[in-house]
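Hi L., both proteins are below.
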Amino acid sequence: MNKRIEKVLEAIARKHRLFDSLSEQNTSEDFNEVAVWCVRSALEEAYQQGINDGQQKSKTKGETL
């Protein structure tokens, strides 16, 4: 995974209050109880970001989806 994707995912995790960091701490901080709607919202945002990135990439290469 490249650094840009890691930054985007970490920002999504923080925004949806899942984790402060996606780096392993090797402590109890690696485990977090979160509401299912927070996970769903974060997954939806990550999915949409993937769609947007794919569309942007195809535009720069002149492809059509």
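That was the first. Here is the second:
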Amino acid sequence: MTLRQLGVAVSYGKSLLHQLETGRTRPTVDVATRLDDALAAGGALAALGGDTGAVAAST
């Protein structure tokens, strides 16, 4: 599956998915849950979702 195909499946852009893949961005709960569902990851990806506000506050 390409990033474009995955983006369509989860309703997010290829650019965001690339940022997640390379570690430039942390997933929100919504993104992580959608990716988990699309990739049938059994909750492993959903567990990575978190409050990005906490990350922004620490920088």
